[in-house]
Every structure is written in C-alpha cells, then in structure tokens.
C-alpha cells in the first residue's frame, strides 16, 4: 500500500525551483541559437519556423491538457479531504469495544470453568455442550466487532491511498513556462500540501488506534477459536468412547473433590448465559411462536363458542377435549410442533418448553382421565423435572451420582408397579405403556452404568428415560388433538369448497393418519438423540450431504436450499388455501336464520396472490437463486406463452381483472348465459358456480368475463315478479284491487318500497286481464313468494265471492231442414 508522506512537499518545491531555472537557461540558449542562425536562407528559415510553430502548438496543447488534469486532481483532492474529515468524525466505538472485550473475557472465564480450569478427573458431555454454545456466541460477538474494525480500517487506508495516488499523478509535475503562472501554480500546490498535512496525521492516528483495537480483538477471536477446537476434540473423543469408564466405581473413594455448591453456582451461571444468548439471537422465532399460540387460541375459542351456541358441547368433552381449555390446547399444539424451528436450542430452553406443555396437559387431564393415571402422569412429570434439574448440573460430583442412583431406582420401581398392575384398559392412549416400559429399561441401564463409573452414559440414560415418557405422552396427545380438531372443524365447515382446501373429512376422527405417527416417532428420536454425545457425529454425514454445494452449469446449489425453497412455497400455498377456506363467513354462521355475510369475497384472490408472491420471493431469497436465472425462466415462459399458453394466460389475467374490478364476488347470485347459481369461489384460472340444480359449474375466468353476466347481488338481491290473472266482467274492479293490495301488503317477503302495483291490462275474450308486479326482498324467495301469493289471492277471492273465470266456448249444433224428397 502506498502511504502519502507529507515531508515530500519541501523536496517537491525545491525540485520545482530547479526545474524553473533549467527552463530559463534553455530559453536563453534558444535565443542565442537564433542569433547564430540569422545568416540562413529564407526557405530554411521558413521551414524552421514551421517546425517551431508545430512544436509550440503541441507544447501548448500538452500544457492545456495538463492544466485541465491538474484542476481535476486538485478538485478530487479537496473532495477526498472533505469525505475524510466527515468520516473521521464517525470514530470507532473504542469504549464500547473495550467494554465488550472485557465482558467476553469474563464470560469466557465462566464458560471455561470445568473445561479449561477446575477440570476434575474427567469431562462431562453436558458441560462441554453448554460451554461450546457459549463460546460460539462469544465468537460471533467478537467476529462482529472484528468485522466492524476491519471495515473502518479499510476506509481509513482507502482515504490515505486515494490522496497519495492523486498527488502522484504525472500531470502535476508539468509546470507552466510563464513565470507568473508558475508562481501561482506553486502557491496552489503549497496550499494543498498545507491542508493535507493535518488530515494525513489524523488518518494515521485513527488507523493506529483501530489497529490497536484490532490486535486485541484478534487475540480474543484466536483464543476463542482455539478453545472451541479443544472442546470439539473432547466431544469427538467422548462420542467415540461412549462406554468408557469416566470415574471409579460408586463405592470407590473420589480422586478429586469440589464442593457441590461451587458446581451448582457455575452451572446456574452457564445455564442463564446460554438461555439469554439464545433468546437474544432467536427473538424473532420466539415472537412467531407466541403469535402462533395466540392465533391457535383464538381459533379454538371461536370453535368452542360455535359448539356452545349450537348446544353441541358434551359435558365430559369426549371427542372434544381440544376445546375444553383452548389456551392450554393451543400451547401444547404449537410448542410441541414448532419447537423444532429452534435449531440446537440450549437444554434449559427445551426444559422450559416441555414443562409449560406438561402443566397445560395436566390442566386438561384433570377430571378427564382416571385418578390413577393422572397420578402416574404427575409422577412422570416430577421425575422429569428432577432429572432435568440434575441435567443442568454441568460437572460430576459424588453427591450427584448418588442422586441419580436413588431417583433412577425409584423410577424403576414405580415403572414396574405400573406395568404389573395392568390397568392399561383405562388408558386413552395405549402407546403410553410402551414408553413407560422403555423408561424402566433405560433407568436400569443407567443405574448399572453409574455404579461402574460410566458417569456420562449413566446421566444420558437417566434424563433420556424420563424424557422419553413425557415427550411420548405429549406427542400422542398432540396427534389426538389434531385429529379431534379436524373432526370438529368438519362438523362446522360442512360446505367447504374442496377446490380451495381439499381434505377428506369423512375419514378424519376415525383414525389419525399414519404420517402423523411417523412424524411423532421422528421428533421423539431427534429429541432423545440430542442427549447422546454420538448423535452429532452420527448425524454429521447426513448434514454434510444436505449442506454440500453442487454445481449444475453455472448455478451452485445445495439440497438444503432446494428443500428450503420447496418448504417455503408449500407453506405459502397451504396458508393461501387455509385463508381461502376459512375466510368464507357462511361456515361460521351460528344461527341458520342469520343472513351470511359476503366476507372477503373476491379479495380472497388478491390475498392469495399476495401470500404466494411473498412466499416466492422469500423462497428465492432463502435458496439463494440468482435473479438472472429467474429472468431466463421468465423469458422461456414468454416464448411458451407466445406459442401455446395464450388461453391459460387469458384466464389468469381475467382472474386478476375480476379480482380488481369486482364485477362478481364470492357469494353473489348470478346468471351466466341462462345458467343461474351462486358464486362459490374465484380462483386463479377458473371460478366455481353452484347452480340451482345442485351441481358445481367450473367456468374459466376468460369465459366468465366475456359472457353476458347477470349479477343479481349488485342490485341488492331483489327481483321483480309478475302474476297475470283474469277477472270476471261482473266483478267489482275497485274491490278486487283493494283485496290484491291487502294480500300483497300482508306478505313479509314483498318489498314495500317500491310497493307492489296492480294494473288492469286489457279486456280479454272472456276476462278482464290483471297484472300484478312486486319486488321480493331476496331473489331466493322470488318463486316461493309468487307461489304463496297465488294461494293467498285464490283464498281471498273465494272468501269475497269473486270468481276467476276460465275460458269457455259454446258449441251450437245446427241441423238443416231435410229436402222435400227426403221427407217423402
């Protein structure tokens, strides 16, 4: 890197003066040579004059060019100095950096307890895991400071390099031949040099300060990386030698002693540190988890209110347990399912999640399951709580080993009592008994490993045994709650549009899908595996397989990125379908006489487009797909559209036009080319109309937009109906008008404004024709209202002795007189 030296300027000024004197000497020699050549011929003189003129013209051009470059350089120097001054005002946070380095050193000292200091006779898996998580967080903090300082130093060096490169431009060393111009130019250089001196000094000083901080940060980063590598060596060795003896037999004297109070103190400190670090880095996920719990609670509470309003809730909540306490059910469902979005969480956070779920499930269990199995559940929760507290103790001690032995022994005894009492017939979920049997097996092996000095193996099996029961029970009831929730939703959402959200509700509730149980077992294995040292190393090849970069042409991808892309798009599609399905308000109408609201209507399509578009952008960003590849794909789609996708694109664009212009909405009553019905859904490509005959008419959006569409709902769902009848010529027309008006007024389904109209049309062949025009409040009641009015009018006329004549014809038979001949 070129560093500008401010002591160059006196030497430069001296060089400029020597060059000026040299130029004057050359001019003097030129004049002398001209006097000597005065005797040359005229032609020679003219030729020499031409050469001198050309030489002078070129020199003048170069001088002008140099002046322009010099002005630009001086201007860039001034701009660079102004930027440097402004950047120097934004100095690096020296105090904050030093303070954070001290905090990192203090946290490192706490984290290293039991691993790098006070090691004892053997390392423990939990202590190594907790320390590794803390060191990685501290390393991330240190690297963030290092990155900031590196950037700051690069900026400072960049300013110095820029100034040095500008002042080294060759054009600056081309001086004017005129003495007065040369003096002004030298003054300008002196001014620039004077202004640059303090800035250059400030940049040097700032660069030195930053370098000092960088040295300190680099030392901390290096120390953290070395410690992490050392821990990885310990972890690998522990994973390879899982069954290796860690300590002597339980009855053997302890080789080293450290008070349990000290061990508990640094264990609590490490636990709180890991929890705070992880919560700080995953605050967004925690907020999402809370929002999901809130949304689930709102939905389950609304579902419970619908069942309560329809008197469908059972007193014992059999088959409806998910609705008993909506907040508890929401907590169990969301935390149990979405805890896996937290990658490698600290054990203390997982314990908090599980205990919250256990507390919620206990509230739901109370009064629903038998007292015996409720006590069994509470015992398992207590065992899990004690084993979790013990698992938070990060260094081995003889006190802890005896605690593990006693609690594991009690757990085995209680588990055997539960198994031999054979009260499985009272269980709501029979699989629970298998988890209890597995717990007995794990705790038995834990006791033997503890006695024989296999501390890490014993502790892993100790926590794994009770954790297996709690997680199995939680997951089994999660599957049950999901199954119940879908069945209950089917009872309410009986008219769902399968085109929007297809689900075979007829099979829901009878038996949970096998896929749910498969996911349950997979989740159980993952949660159990995190307690074993070998789990990370056994899963490492699989992680490497998914994370490995692969090249296809110029595009680099990994299976993880592709799976992430597919997962985000699948979630976006699922959310869009769920929104479309549940946004139809008529499904949630409690009172059947209540008029359903239109709801989101055609806005659903826009909402779905927004959700899918956001999902696509997020998927592209998460997968790291370059935008130029997207442009190529769009270009290929353009060619495809030009050749054979015109109809599809027409339908898609028509769907957007329908969504924005809203000539029709979901729930509107329409007539399309004589086919009447109700708009059931408006999709991307096609829309669905439920006809009066009970069929669903699937119509492409292009055809729907180009058809003669009649929308009755836009006019308020009213329809004018006419009744034509005839009256006898002997009838009192005023009385008939009054009777008809009274009948129409008494009908509640007839609109009063505009009111019905009774008109006498014409004198017919045998009747006076009457036409009755009236509006019905809703088009669905139009024909039923006309039918009822005909019955009411007939009854009213009969009561008032008014006859409704019918066409009659008189047939006259004419017999002509017989001829005289015939008479004879």
Structure description:
It is built from 23 helices and ten strands. The chain is α+β, with helices and mostly antiparallel strands. The protein folds into four domains: 233 residues, no CATH class; 272 residues, no CATH class; 158 residues, no CATH class; 82 residues, 2-Layer Sandwich (Alpha-Beta Plaits), CATH 3.30.70. α4 crosses α6 and α7 runs antiparallel to α8. The longest helix has 62 residues. The radius of gyration is 46 Å and the shape is flat. Keywords: Cell membrane, Membrane, Transmembrane, Transmembrane helix.
Topology overview:
Elements: H1 8-36, H2 42-89, H3 94-111, H4 125-167, H5 179-240, H6 260-281, H7 283-309, H8 326-338, H9 347-365, H10 371-391, H11 398-421, H12 432-451, H13 455-492, H14 514-529, H15 533-547, E1 550-552, E2 555-557, H16 559-582, H17 603-623, H18 627-644, H19 646-661, E3 669-672, E4 675-682, E5 686-691, E6 696-700, H20 701-706, E7 709-711, E8 719-727, H21 733-746, E9 757-763, E10 768-776, H22 782-799, H23 820-823
Antiparallel strand pairs: 1-2, 3-4, 3-7, 4-5, 5-6, 8-10, 9-10
Helix pairs in contact: 1-5, 2-4, 2-5, 3-4, 3-5, 4-5, 4-6, 5-15, 7-8, 7-13, 8-9, 8-13, 9-10, 10-11, 10-13, 11-12, 11-13, 12-13, 13-14, 16-17, 17-19, 18-19, 21-22
Subcellular location: Cell membrane
Domain Mechanosensitive ion channel MscS C-terminal: 722-804
Membrane topology: Multi-pass membrane protein
């Amino acid at each position: 890197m070129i560093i500008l030296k401010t002591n160059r300027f006196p030497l430069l000024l001296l060089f400029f003066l020597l060059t000026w004197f040299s130029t004057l000497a050359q001019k003097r020699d030129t004049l002398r040579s001209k006097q000597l050549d005065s005797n040359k011929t005229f032609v020679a003189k003219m030729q020499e004059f031409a050469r001198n003129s050309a030489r002078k013209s070129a020199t003048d051009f170069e001088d002008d060019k140099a002046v322009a470059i010099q002005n630009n350089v001086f201007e860039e120097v001034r701009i660079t100095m102004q930027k440097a001054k402004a950047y120097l005002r934004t100095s690096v946070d020296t105090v904050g950096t030093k303070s954070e380095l001290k905090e990192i050193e203090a946290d490192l000292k706490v984290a290293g307890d039991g691993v790098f200091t006070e090691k004892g006779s053997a390392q423990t898996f939990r202590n190594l895991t907790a320390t590794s998580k803390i060191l990685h967080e501290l390393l991330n903090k240190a690297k963030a400071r290092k990155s900031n300082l590196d950037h700051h130093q690069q900026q400072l060096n960049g300013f110095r390099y820029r100034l040095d490169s500008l002042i080294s431009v060759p054009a600056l060393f081309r001086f004017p031949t005129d003495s007065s111009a040369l003096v002004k130019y030298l003054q300008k250089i002196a001014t620039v040099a004077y202004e640059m001196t303090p800035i250059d000094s400030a940049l040097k000083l700032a660069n030195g300060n930053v370098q000092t901080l960088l040295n300190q940060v680099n030392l901390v980063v290096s120390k953290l990386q070395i410690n992490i590598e050392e821990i990885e060596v310990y972890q690998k060795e522990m994973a390879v030698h899982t069954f290796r003896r860690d300590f002597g037999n339980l009855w053997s004297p302890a080789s080293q002693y450290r008070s349990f109070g000290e061990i508990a103190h640094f264990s609590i400190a490490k636990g709180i540190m890991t929890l705070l670090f992880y919560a700080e880095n995953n605050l967004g996920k925690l907020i999402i988890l809370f929002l999901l719990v809130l949304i689930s609670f709102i939905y389950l509470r609304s579902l419970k209110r619908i069942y309560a309003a329809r008197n469908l809730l059972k007193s014992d909540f059999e088959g409806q347990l998910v609705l008993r306490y909506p907040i508890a059910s929401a907590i169990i469902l969301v935390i149990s399912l979405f805890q896996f979005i937290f990658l490698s969480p600290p054990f203390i956070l997982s314990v908090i999640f599980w205990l919250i779920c256990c507390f919620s499930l206990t509230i739901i269990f109370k009064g629903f399951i038998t007292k015996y199995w409720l006590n069994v559940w509470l015992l398992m929760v207590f065992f899990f709580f004690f084993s979790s507290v013990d698992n938070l103790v990060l260094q081995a001690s003889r006190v802890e080993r005896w605690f593990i032995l006693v609690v594991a022994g009690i757990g085995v005894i209680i588990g055997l009592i539960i198994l031999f009492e054979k009260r499985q017939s009272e269980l709501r979920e029979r699989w629970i008994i298998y988890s209890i049997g597995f717990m007995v097996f794990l705790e038995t092996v834990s006791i033997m490993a503890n006695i024989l000095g296999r501390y890490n193996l014993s502790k892993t099996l100790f926590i794994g045994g009770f954790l297996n029961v709690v997680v199995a029970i939680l997951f089994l009831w999660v599957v049950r709650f999901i199954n119940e929730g879908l069945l209950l939703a089917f009872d309410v959402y009986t008219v769902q549009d399968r085109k929007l959200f297809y689900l075979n509700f007829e099979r829901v509730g009878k038996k949970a899908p096998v896929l749910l149980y498969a996911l349950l077992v997979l989740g159980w294995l993952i949660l159990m595996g995190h307690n074993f040292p070998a789990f990370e190393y056994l899963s490492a090849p699989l992680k490497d397989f998914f994370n490995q970069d692969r090249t296809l042409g110029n595009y680099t991808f990994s299976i993880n990125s592709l799976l992430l892309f597919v997962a985000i798009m699948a979630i976006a599609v699922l959310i869009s379908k769920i929104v479309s399905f549940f946004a139809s308000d008529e499904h949630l109408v409690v009172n059947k006489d209540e008029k359903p609201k239109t709801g989101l209507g055609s806005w659903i399509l826009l909402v779905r487009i927004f959700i899918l578009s956001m999902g696509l952008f997020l998927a592209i960003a998460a997968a790291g797909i370059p935008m130029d590849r997207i442009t190529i794909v769009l270009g290929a789609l353009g060619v495809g559209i030009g050749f054979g996708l015109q109809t599809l694109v027409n339908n898609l664009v028509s769907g957007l036009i329908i969504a924005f212009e809203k000539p029709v909405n979901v729930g509107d009553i329409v007539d399309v080319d004589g086919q009447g019905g109700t708009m059931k859904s408006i999709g991307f490509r096609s829309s669905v109309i439920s006809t009066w005959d009970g069929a669903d008419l699937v119509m492409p959006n292009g055809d729907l937009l180009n058809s003669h569409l009649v929308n009755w709902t836009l006019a308020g769902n009213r329809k004018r109906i006419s009744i034509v009848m005839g009256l006898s010529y002997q009838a009192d027309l005023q009385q008939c008008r009054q009777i008809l008006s009274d009948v129409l007024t008494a009908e509640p389904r007839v609109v009063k404004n505009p009111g019905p109209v009774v008109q006498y049309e014409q004198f017919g062949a045998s009747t006076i024709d009457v036409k009755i025009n009236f509006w019905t409040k809703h088009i669905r009641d139009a024909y039923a209202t006309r039918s009822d009015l005909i019955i009411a009018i007939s009854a009213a006329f009969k009561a008032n002795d008014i006859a409704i004549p019918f066409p009659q014809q008189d047939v006259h038979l004419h017999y002509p007189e017989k001829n005289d001949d015939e008479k004879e």
